User: Fold these one by one.
Assistant:
Number 1:
Amino acid sequence: MPIPSPFHSRTAGLCESHEWRNWSGYLAAGVYEPTHECEYYAIRNSAALIDVSPLFKYEFHGPDAGRAANRIITRDAWSMTPGKVIYTPWCDDDGKVIDDGTLACLEADRYRFTAAEDNYAWFQDCCFGLDVEIRDVTENLAALAVQGPSSRRLLERVLTGVDLSALRYYHLAKATLDGLPLVISRTGYTGDLGYELWLSPEDAGQVWDRLMEAGQALGVLPAGILALDIARIEAGLVMLQVDYISARKALIEAQKSSPYEIGMGWAVKLEKGDFIGRKALQKEKQAGSRWALVGLEVDWTSIENVYGRYDLAPQIAGRASRLAVPVYQGNRHIGQATSHTFSPLLKGYIALATVETRYTKPNGPVQLEITVEYVRHTVYARIVALPFLNLARKRA
Amino acid sequence: MPEKFDAIIIGGGHNGLVNAAYLARAGKKVLVLERRPVVGGASVTEEIYPGFKFSVFSYVVSLLRPEIIRDLSLSKHGLTILPLESTLTPLLDGNYLYRDGDHYRTVRDIARFSRRDADAYEDYSHAMYFMAKAVKPVLNLVPPDPTSLDPAELNRLLRFTRPYLKLEPYQLHTLVRLMTMSSADFVERWFESEPLKGTLSASGIIGTFLGPRSPGTAYVLLHHYMGEIDGAFRAWGFAKGGTGGIAEAIARAARSFGAEVRTEAPVAKVIVKDGKASGIALENGAEIAADVIVSSLDPRRTFMDLLDPGYLPAELVKSLRRYTFRGSSGKVNLALDGLPELTCLPGSGRHLSGAISISPSVDYIERAYDEAKYGDFSHQPYIDIIIPSMIDPGMAPPGKHVMSCFVQYAPYNLRQVTWDEKREDFGDVVVETLSQYFTNLKDIILHRQVLTPLDMERMLGLSEGNIFQGELSLSQLFFLRPAAGHARYRTPVRSYYQCGSGTHPGGGISGASGRLAALEILKDWRGTR
């Protein structure tokens, strides 16, 4: 029985498809219109409003807030100044990833985490002995992502008290909308120019209405999880419990991953000093990791050929799939593609895959399993660097 | 011509019937002798009040071995296990804790009491998954003799311990804690909110004369956590038609293999000739011969009552005399004119189709134990309630209901008085306690059946009214159940076997003892021991 999010009074009427998802116990629109294509193109071509309120959100407050955050995450929280946001994983003692999310420095002694799963007890345990108060603010904070090339123009029309042209990538600022206070961060899960608004749940309806109204002339649409899923795969962004399993939930060791194995090695700052998992990660960095996250571009002709055997044109679902499929090199099983989709923009079939490190040579040919007419086949794919889509406007 | 069977099983409880079914399936000529007019033992459904069917004693199923369901085709013979998904802990202040299969709703509800507990709940479930996974294979193994150096024994010991060797070190540490700690201390490693701690730790006291703060109870908690239906972990269920439905399905399976089941046939003695059991004598004096005699009764009945203890080694007799029963629970079954109305969640709803646990805090249960320690029953007892008619409408006439209340503590030995004097007082206490949570209860009771440990002893032959045929404490489990050196279903008397809950693994409607015993008996028969 998922519960409504703060935007539900507005999204409910718009969700013509009635296709709701359970996102961390909240109702989340999978897709508003009967198909998700226009919603996807809103993200890439105009702007989309995406209700991301179900994200878990925690505030760290107190003299040791920065120290506490720094103890938890693999990136360096010390270098953060108020207004800075970072994207980071956090690990257990064995250097296996528990979750990933953003950490925002709101004030010198006040930080805010977002997370895909609940981390409250874990954070508390990690902060034992530190002078910091951890508060779960998930329900106190509505979150709305405004993503797409027109997002800045849209927000400039409605927000006051903030200069968006000066708000850099992964920074936040305070602003008001019709007198309602909110925090705006230049962050998102789409790899596009975009922002996220953090506001009081009571103001959610009014903020939504104002954005929809002002966005009409800009082609702004509400977008659901389906469109978001395609965008995040294009952007090479992993999803917890889809592309990797939380170390707190894994049933066997083999199900756990280090940051190096899920494409987040860049976010491990071993030199920053002690943090949870550091020793294990130091070791892994020296010894090398067993797995690596890679992008796969599937050879379209190869897909056509397999379907051609059945006298069929390729029937590829427009939706992203979260069903993992095996990846082979020759007869050897080398890993699995965990998220895959047809990219409407790149006009190709792409996948996020975890494969053994020794098979990650760029352009390396691999095969991906595909089921056609109930029979399993393989199609050719090549290993490419992530992200698939790297838009200049994301940072501009 | 006197009757002669390959095997006679004394007692038609679920273990006796499982044993009979396995022996009959192997082609043996089998006779089951049950003292009561109905089979099932403690796994029985009876129409105590016209139109109302009570699962008189045992009321839920969790551990029934999937192998038994498959081997005996129990589904074909009518076994249907309905889901029992939720647990509600009502509180006196009108609040409540509700947990069910909806993960996010459950953690939201826990978060109303402790935000921390909501997140820790996942860790706890995760830890218990591994514990259940490690301990569960042991339920299907004949216990080894850890004192023997015989290679076959060492191999058996290895098989017994192999699941533990596979655990990660931190999981092994959890297992050691589970085996040594009290259930309250164990759950307090994760949780801080009282209704959650109370309800979880209560699983650790069921059927034992121990409190939630008594060391050793954490293992019992796991025993209850291991429940499964058809191989799925951690699912409690309610058998259609009550727990008698299980016994009837097993009896049908046994008959389908050719076993004969006789009721109202109380056995007085096992006849021993030249150190070998050769038959039984019924209370009416008739004798029936058989090659093998199997007792599904508890260890005291099996060794001391049915047998002349003179046939047994003195050490065993000494050990069995110290085997603890100490029945500690009672049962109150109510026939209700309508649906009981909860103060905290008025009206009908899914929450009435699950378990309702009167366990507001660890202290509440520990205080209930305090009274029992000194020979009184608890005046504010722990009560585990289900309303079977909400799960299986066939249990009561339309619009009416039956309510099953497992009550602890009700010590077998009361100070100065007997249960015959106190039975109705005990029933009153239970109804009074329930009325603090159910507003209309007193007005809708049509009939009340109060069962004390003494009643269970008299009706079922369970010594001291222990529902597990002996406490499920570590000192009486595995190779020590019921006694060291006699944990493998055999007895010092040749051809005389034990297959009740008083043998490994024991406890709950699992059928494991009956099955393992049958497999050992068949081995002996083939001479491949």
Number 2:
Amino acid sequence: MALQDGDRINLEKASVMLIDANPQGLDILTQMFAGFGARTPHRCETVKEAQGMLRKVDVDLIVIEADLPGDMDGYDFVRWLRRAGMPQNTFTSVILVSGHTRAQNVARARDCGSNFIIVKPISPRILLQRVTWVAKESRQFVECDAYIGPDRRFKNAGPPPGVKPRRHDDIRTKLGAATAPNMDQDEIDNLMMPTRVSL
Amino acid sequence: MTAVKFSPPKNYLAKSMRQPGGTTVRGALKDAKQNLDMIRAECIAEIDAKLGAINEQFGHAHEKPDDDALDEFYRLSNGIVGIAGTFEMTELGDAAFSLCELIDRLKPAEQWDWPAVEIHLSGLRLLRRATPGAPENQAMLTGLRALAMRAR
């Protein structure tokens, strides 16, 4: 859903951690979040610094550059975060930021457990939109041997044609062509998230 | 098959953002843009420093550099991708992105494609001085992308 200029956002109380080895990259993120109203984001230039801080403070949102120098890059960091056994920070929302992604890292990006990946260049509008998407996140958290993180399926359209269903909630019947016009987003929201109304 | 555990999302960010107060999206974007303007000069100087380092270290790399040097080449170029577009130098960022793609493709290759690298370096130098949005910039970017995509 597009971000409207009149919508309200509040990041004053949010605990935000920004990680980027490039000082200018870190400054760009810091200045954007300062504009969004985040009071004192935790700035980290190394993964080691971030790991130390996460053992002491609870964080609501982490924004991390994917291509970090050294033994642990952004993808490894998110994998570590999801498995480190910290009671709250295990589930912290993570936005990975990436310029060019090497071919060998595409699958790692998908499987590391981040909530979103933003491709650079970042504009304030794109970043703010992704932050609000993450705040509205309703995907379940998945934990298994190979993956820990938000469900990688953004929508459940069932198995591809010709493939038998594997999950109990896979759609088992052929849906066929639509017979009515598409519903608008408000109608869909009302179906998914009914709210109590006091008259 | 291993056990898979599904649990409802624990969205701490949503809880923080539901607090009363805050600002409008319009105000937040305006403030963010003003803040970025304060670091514009410093970031553009960093782009120039990275361009300088690329030209100095790899401007005459007729032979394939070793893996560590290629990683440094890639990181310098990717650094430009990260900064340029935020400060309306989108075309320069796109050229740097194409150079990253080229380096990534050439790294495992046996043959080093110096002409393709050299053309990218020239493209970066030209786009740094070019008028943003000029039609010839797009033509140049199309050529750079085609060069990067054919590398193997």
Number 3:
Amino acid sequence: MIRFIAGRLLSLVPVVLGVSFVAFLVLQLSPGDPAQLMLGENATAEGVAQLRREYALDQPLPIQFGAFLLAALHGDFGRSFATRTAVAPELLRRFGNTVELASLAFGLALLLGVPLGIVAAVRRNSLFDHAIRLVVLVFVSVPVFWLGILLIYLFAVTLRWLPSTGHDKLESFVLPTLSLSAYSLAILVRMTRASMLEVLAQDYLRTARAKGLRQRVVITRHAFKNALIPIITITGLQVGFLMTGAVLVETVFAWPGIGRYLVDALFGRDYPVIRACIFLFSVIFLLVNLVVDLLYAVIDPRIRMSG
Amino acid sequence: MRVRPPRARGVIRDAVERFRGDRGALLGLVVIVAVVALAALAPIVSPYDPVEQQIRLRGQGPSTEHVLGLDEVGRDELSRVLYGARVTVGGAVAAVAAAGILGVGAGLLSGSAHRRVDNVLMRIADGMLAFPSIVLAILAVVFIGPGLLSAIAAVAIADVPGYARLTRGQTLTVREQEFVRAAVAVGATPVRVALRHVLPNTIAPIIVYSSLQIGSAIIRLASLSFLGFGAQPPEPEWGAMLNAAQQWLGTAPHISIVPGAAIVTVVVAFNLVGDGLRDALDPRTRVTR
């Protein structure tokens, strides 16, 4: 198992380097001297020269890239062109807010989606199953941002039950979380249902029933465990969606997360911030996919052997 | 001597039969045909000019003259949604078509050509898959600049590796089948084998994948425009319309509802057809439905 993990980690190194290089290139688009832009009009010549040395901006590209990697490893992403302050602390603060939102949303999706998918599979073609399938179809077809707008219209503008913005009170979490979780919920229900149906058709399930096990034990212990792999795959794939979704939901609800930070940076051509966001998104994406790979191996020992 | 690929009429007839029995898929197909017709005929069927402003009537709700009301600067909402179908649905279809042509080409080459070519192409695909799709979109915005074309490019680029992998997998399977070996044995050129024998037999899953991708592409394209990185005003694009409508949610909610409802309707239709095609073309998946 340790060999397996080490192998996967090692194979990640060139990918992380490649992804970092693309992120690194973004700053090269800066119109003018990045050091000057980071410090502003009123910066002294010495200050600019020092910053330039610090980030090796006066060196050839490969060395600049090395300096960028080294700085990134230390959690240093330079200064924002817009605020002239260090990117990293702001990035971290906002990242926390996004993780909060995304984990709430995905947690809710898991909590509801997996049981609903199981019940739909067990009661296949029942009224419940048809209703669930209709809801899934609608939820996968609704743009996240429009769902957010609808929820604001219904619960904030018309009923005045919940706030449409803010991040301080518990109530302000409700609408963003619901908007972001709908798509993941639908995908999880669909995947769990399909995966359960496949497993339920297997011979060993008939055997389990035939030897007199109770339905609940058959479903939870024998069927669900074997239906887990596709569910975990989907969980891994959802990370990419959650990132895009967070950017949209944060825009609709003025949520102070990394998504809004990125959108504002894109409009303001704040390249150090854009670069840091690309780096962070990509590295997290790779790490989550690594964890998913490792989870496969934990659940299904056959993968460990062949991998 | 030329070897003809096996005629697949029986398979196709079976598939059509199954598709016709799927009420959801048929409904989806009807909606898509209607939307495409309305989009194509937008200049004829639209009651008003989509960019002409009647500023005095701005934000007015539905009435007999303006069935879906007027938008934030007094443009006829129905006309804008009809023209918007051209931009949003047309753009999404263009993105998927571009991704399909590039991806299928690369996948076919990867599965047919030398091992080394295969390796290079698949590493490129892996590299593209290493980026979350939002990052690909950001890169398009950063390097090309905001606009409808860069949004379409961002949507297309994200889909290329999926097509390439799918086609490569199909190609590797089909290549092992006897009729392909027979074609190779009688001296068909590699290009002919790939295009005439392998490609037609990989097409079914590609069609299914495409119909499901179009729905997702519509959402992704509208999302980018909603953020302000896609179609720019005054272009009638559904996502961009929703962006402009947002601050009028309290006073003119209809302009926040109509374009979104249009998106959901079309995406549901494409998803229904995609699911129907999948069941029709690959009867094995029916078991798990």
Number 4:
Amino acid sequence: MRISLAGARRFRMRRAKWSLGRLCAACLLPLLFFTPSIRAQEKPSEYDVKAAYLFTFGKFVTWPPAVKERATEPFTICILGQDPFKGALDAIVSQGRIAGLPAATQRLSKLDPDTIARCRVIFISSSEEKQLEQILASLGRAQILTVSDIAGFSRRGGMIEFVLDQDKVRFTVNLAAARSAGLVLSSELLKVALTVREDGRHGE
Amino acid sequence: MSAGNQAVGKRISGVLASLRQWILPLAALTLIFAPPSVAQATGKVHAQSLAGLSLEQLGNVEVTTASKEPEELWQTPAAVYVLTQQDIRRSGATSIPEALRLVPGVEVARIDSGHWAVGIRGFGSTFSKSVLVLIDGRSVYTPLFAGVYWDVQNVLLDDVERIEVIRGPGGTIWGANAVNGIINIITKSATQTHGALVSAGGGSVDQGTGAARYGGTLGRNLNYRFYGLGFTRGPEFHSDQRNFDDWRAGQAGFRTDWTSRGSNDFTAEGDMYRGEVGGGTSVGIYQPPSQMVLEANAEVAGGNVMGNWRHRFGDNSDFRFQGYYDRTSRLTPQLGEKRDTFDLDFLYHLGLGARQDLLLGAGARWSPDAITQTIPTLDIAPHQETDKIYSWFGQDKIALVADKLWLTLGSKFEHNNYTGFEAQPDARLLFTPVPHQAFWIAATRAVRTPSRLDRDLLLTDFLGAPPPTYLRVVGSSDFDSEHLVGTEIGYRGVIGRNFFLDITGFRNSYDDLYGYGTASVFLEPSPAPAHLVFQLPLANALEGDTEGVEVAPNWKVSNWWELRGSYSFLHLVVSDQRGFTDALNTASDNGSSPHHEAGLQSLFDLPRKIELDLTYRYVSALPAQAVRAYQTGDVRLGWKPAPRLELSIVGRNLLQPEHEEFGGDPGPLVGIKRSVYAQITWTEPEQQP
């Protein structure tokens, strides 16, 4: 009885090994077929899409007249802190115009009043999470569209917060924050937003 | 064949074998190393082509994310593993326990179709104690045996945002029963489930599943969803043809999320379910003196409603108030249990300057039950009892060095109706020298308070005749809490650009574990015929030590390929406490947790919206369950032929026709079958007004 059981066990183990080999082969075979076309990867990275958003937002925001008058400057998108875009933002911006202006990017390591005056849009990198309250306070009512993917950004007083939703990049809007900076967001932008927060910070 | 020929033959087959060994890895390696340069170039191409899209189109582009690890993870000095919606979907799991197989340090063993033994860092069993399971903050463990009925936790997996698994004692915040770990199931906010979803599936064991969900908004800030699901599942493999473990259930529910004036969030949610879970139990009979196997369905039903209010006072302070009512009803051939649970929890969070973060909480739970005795040999007496728990806790996270070194100190104080006051202190140190590199250590004391079974059980099994002799296990009124003192050390970090590593080591020391006390023998005249009883009282008879290591690497090989591994080592020794000899429970505890568990998962994003996901896992032997070591694998192929349509086909446990994972049912071990399952899902986004 015992012997036959052991025999059966050995037999089973051999079968398991064989089917493991077969499984591996079966799984890797389709891979070999896919190899050539695999290189043309299908999905862009998260930050490719975020860069495209940053570029596109400009078309849906109206800046106050004072900003528009400085129309000789390029339309500058600033990145505060570590740049997560790996060149994607530059690649887009180098080719395009926003609101009739040539577009440019600028990287900032800290906020100083002279340089931020040039920014139309500022992306606050997640590397700045710890200082976020300070940054938003020192931006004050500067007429700059603030965008970030720091969690809770729109709740903490930022204007547009990127949110990942089932592998898609969406955004939430804090309308009051934009308003207090004198920016008007178009209804099209609000319609696409995941949520729109009407109040400001702290329920003001 | 001459000896020389044989040697040559051997050498050739050796070469062939090593070729076989090397060719596949080499093929895989070429795949890994060929594409990066191309990928970088295409990154820019992607970005430029994306610039032409509208906002709406951008919102529908599927992306690969750099790191799935949420930011909070870097701030958590505990062994946390997060299963995202994506992970759950790509695992091909159709139930929560199956999805948990991906988590290192968690032992998931399927007993039969609707029953699992889920343990964390050892001590998994049908009646796994000491693991706390929460669904959106609602505790789903039953105070009856301090474990979880997995057969009624049928969450709509599409609606799960993430499952956070915390291994190790988490008593401070979470309270009693969070001794070996916490499984925290978090469903999506109703803001994330607008539109419609319909899915249907079928297969060899998961015979039929169907689900539908609809969500939307009322006004700008009130979001809602409704869902319904149902499934029928066939039996697993029974070598004796007693296919008793078929399983059917239906569930429906809702969730609403309302944001008011930005500083208040309200969530209300609820579910109702009904099901039939096939099972087998071996029970003692007095007349004629014998043991009999009952095979019948457990009739399960229940429902819950829950409300949650979060209020923010500015940036550094908020509170959360939560209440729920949960009703469960379970009628099996051997016992009936109805339970109503009322729970209130309050949590207050306050940042004190830049250096301190204070968390204060209080909770009350009131859980009356009603037991129905259906056979003379199993009872829980008294039939009605109300479990009452009151708890308070405080925790302070202090930045010793700004942004680099934090000390967290806290304790929970709990009063329960069995053992009175219990304190569960905890100290943790977190060091993050640079972003995305974290080291932590922790020391914790946790308790598992007595359950109804520990105190009030009366279970009688027939041993033999003549004379008719029975074994009776009885709860005892002096059964005390089980205690654990645990120390842990951990590292998590991103290495290079694409490699994430999580390593944890732990040592747990248990006292007063569940076991049998000193036996007594007596003659019992009734019920007739007069019989001999060996009586074993439940007692805090055992003590034990566990040590282990868990490693979870995650390698984002490229934009279209991710590799994930997990390995868990566990050394567990349980022995008699002074004054006790309990060979039965020591053997069962020592031999029911795997010493080694390993898993490897490969996720491919192929062209034409095809996903190919391969999972391999190995679990070492469980001598006390007579379960041999096994290795098996799953394959999932997903395809999105249209933006709203997803098709998937999943092959499970493919390496053998069936394999055993755990004992528990009467008769021979139930084999978990190789199975195939296909599903179609249609999602309809919300119509823009």
